[in-house]
Write a structure and sequence with these properties.
60 residues, rod-shaped, 97% helix
Length: 60
């Protein structure tokens, strides 16, 4: 009887671990997408800053 309860507990823990792994994978994907968006925004910001600086110098 104790072995049966132990097996059920182990199966339960395995399922919980698999669920947590899925959550971690989803969070990693979200972070990767956010990182790409952030990097593209930084690139756009750098381009805009570069054009603003050159525009200011030509006006002076």
């Amino acid at each position: 009887m104790a072995i049966f309860i132990g097996l059920i507990f182990i199966l339960y823990l395995r399922r919980r671990i698999q669920e947590q792994e899925k959550v971690i994978i989803e969070k990693e994907r979200y972070l990767e997408k956010s990182k790409k968006k952030y990097e593209s925004l930084l690139a756009i910001h750098a381009k805009l800053k570069k054009t603003d600086t050159s525009g200011d110098q030509s006006q002076k």
